[in-house]
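Record format v2
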Amino acid sequence: MKAHLSRRYLFSASHRLHSEAMSPQENQATYGKCNNPYGHGHNYIVELTVSGQVDEKTGMVCNLADFDSFIEREVLARFDHENLNTLREFAQEVPTTENLCIQIYEIVHRGFPHAHLERVRLEETLMNSFEYTG
Amino acid sequence: MVYLTRKAEFSASHYYHNPDFTPEENLRVFGKCNNPNGHGHNYTLEVTVKGEVDPRSGFVVDLKQLKEVMHRDVLEAMDHRFLNKEVPEFIHRIPTTENIAIAIWQRLVSKLETAKLHRIRVYETPDLFVDFYGEP
C-alpha cells in the first residue's frame, strides 16, 4: 500500500535579497528591509514529503536513517549556518525562500532514489511558508 | 465537498524487528528502534473525513459518532499499549508509523455512517508523520 512520509528539519542561514538586474531604488522598493546589504537570518524549517509502497519486510516507505543521513549531508550541511548569497547555488539567482525551496527539491529529487519526492515545504518564519512540488 | 479533521492523542510503545532478518541485519536496518524491550511515543492522530454538508444539520459528519468510533476502535486498542504484543495487526507486522496509519484506516473506513474517510495522519513526533489515503 502507498503511504506518504513527511519529515521536518531545522537549519539557520542568512541572506540578502538583491537583484543585479534592478537599480538600487528598485531593489529597495521590491525587497524593503530584506535588501539590507549586511543581510539577515532565519531559522528555516524544511518539511519533505516522500511517497511509495510500504515495504513488507521493513514496514517503511524508505529507510528513515538513510533519508536522514542523505538530508544531513546534502541539504543541512550545505545550507545550515551559511550566508546563502555566498553559495554557488545562488551565484546567479536571488536567495529568496521560493528559490531555496526549488533548490532543495532539485537536490532531493536528483539524489535520493529510494522514494518519490512529493513536496518540499519551507517555512521561513512562523508566518511565511512556501511549497514546491516540481 | 467539505473536509473535517478530528485529532486525538495516544501513547504507546513499540519496537521494529523482522524475524526473517539476522540480528545484524535487524540492527542495521532498524537501528535504535530494534531494542526488543521497546520504546515509546506520544502519537497524534488526525482523522480527516469528507462529504457534502447536510442541509438539515449543517454537518459533514456527526462528530459525536466520529469521536466514539475513534475512541472505541483506535484509542481503546492502542493507547498505553505495547503495540507489538497487544494489537493484533502488529503481532506479525512491524508497527512503523506507516503501518499504524494503514491499520487505523482499516479500523475506521467501514465504521463511518455519513462522511467518507479521506486521510489518516499519524505523527510519531512533531517532526515525523505519515499520511495514508487508502491507496493500494
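Strands of chain B lie at 2-14, 39-51, 81-82, 116-125, 128-132.
Residues 2-132 of chain B form a domain with the Tetrahydropterin Synthase; Chain A fold (CATH 3.30.479.10).
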